[in-house]
């Protein structure tokens, strides 16, 4: 099928528009959130999570653009330029995906398997940079093509393939480890009778994390199938399916952000209710103490009141302090 007649490029165009709309929607939602919280500053908007999430959406959009350029301009002269852009967007997606997954999922992994989390923490110091090695190889190939160094160009092409496979293998391995940790956490959560003691954010991260990591594995499965076929139409189909998975990952991560924000609102409301209940309990306790004091003072004999006035006052103060200390401890324990 000729490139001019390939209907799949229209699918890429539609997915490109969807991904760009998602990026715009993310920016609007973040801006709306900081307005509601009355902290409209660059620092409040440009958090690491928001930046990484936005870069994932932009890189997903960039993949569609490079695919459209490769379909519409299949010239051999443009091969390395498109390859550099493609590797760059893939590297941005993989590195931001790994960092974002670690920042949100490391607490769950540490909760379930501390030893595995220890190993992954050291790997995260290196893996995001490894994702950009294919870009270096592509730029080298472009330079070799420009200077008509055919042997060096072929070597750069081989290096680009090998480094891309290494980067993909790292991402898949980390993804599988996250997926295993989240599934084990959810299984334990179902069997745990003390579910209320576990932070609701853990549950949200694990639930959405399973969807994200399964989608990433599907993306790499489609990329593997792309190398197993020869038809240009089938190659284009598996490429679009793989790139489509990146967009799905982006929207799932946006949904996770919304879920975590809703959880924060719920926890703030619960904390406010607990504070109100504590104030009411304190007020009721003080009123009951005042009534008991008045009753005891009217029932006590006059001789005893006169005889031990100072001693009685001292004992009442000590008793009153002990009562309020126990009351505060009880309120604190209820609030925890």
Automatic annotation (TrEMBL):
Name the residue ranges with Basic and acidic residues bias: 276-296
Q: Does the keyword Transmembrane helix apply?
A: yes
Q: Positions of the region Disordered?
A: 271-306
* Source organism (scientific name): Rhizoclosmatium globosum
- Transmembrane intervals: 12-31, 121-141, 161-183, 204-228, 240-260
Q: Is the keyword Flavoprotein in the record? A: no
Keyword tags: Membrane, Transmembrane, Transmembrane helix
| Name of the protein | G-protein coupled receptors family 3 profile domain-containing protein
Q: Where is the composition biased (Polar residues)?
A: 297-306
């Amino acid at each position: 099928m000729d490139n001019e007649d390939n209907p799949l490029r229209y699918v890429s165009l539609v997915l490109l528009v969807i991904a760009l709309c998602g990026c715009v929607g993310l920016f609007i939602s973040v801006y709306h959130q900081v307005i509601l919280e009355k902290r409209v500053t660059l620092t409040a908007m440009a958090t690491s999570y928001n930046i990484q999430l936005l870069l994932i959406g932009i890189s997903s959009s960039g993949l569609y653009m490079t695919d459209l350029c490769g379909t519409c301009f299949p010239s051999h002269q443009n091969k390395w330029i498109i390859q550099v852009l493609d590797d760059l967007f893939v590297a941005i997606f993989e590195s931001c995906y790994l960092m974002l997954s670690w920042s949100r999922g490391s607490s769950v992994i540490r909760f379930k398997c501390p030893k595995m989390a220890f190993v992954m923490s050291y790997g995260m110091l290196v893996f995001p940079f490894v994702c950009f090695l294919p870009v270096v190889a592509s730029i080298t190939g472009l330079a070799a093509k420009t200077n008509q160094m055919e042997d060096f160009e072929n070597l750069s092409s081989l290096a680009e393939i090998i480094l891309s496979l290494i980067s993909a293998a790292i991402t898949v391995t980390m993804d599988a480890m996250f997926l295993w940790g989240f599934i084990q956490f959810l299984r334990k959560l179902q069997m745990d009778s003390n579910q209320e003691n576990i932070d609701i954010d853990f549950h949200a991260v694990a639930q959405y994390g399973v969807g994200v990591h399964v989608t990433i594995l599907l993306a790499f499965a489609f990329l593997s199938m792309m190398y197993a076929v020869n038809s240009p139409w089938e190659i284009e189909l598996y490429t679009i399916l793989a790139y489509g998975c990146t967009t799905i990952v982006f929207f799932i991560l946006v949904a996770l952000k919304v879920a975590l924000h809703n959880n924060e609102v719920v926890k703030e409301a619960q904390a406010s209710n607990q504070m109100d209940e504590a104030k009411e309990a304190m007020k009721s306790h003080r009123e009951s103490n005042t009534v008991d004091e008045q009753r005891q003072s009217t029932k006590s004999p006059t001789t005893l009141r006169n005889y031990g006035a100072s001693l009685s006052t001292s004992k009442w103060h000590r008793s009153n302090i002990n009562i309020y200390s126990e009351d505060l401890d009880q309120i604190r324990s209820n609030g925890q």
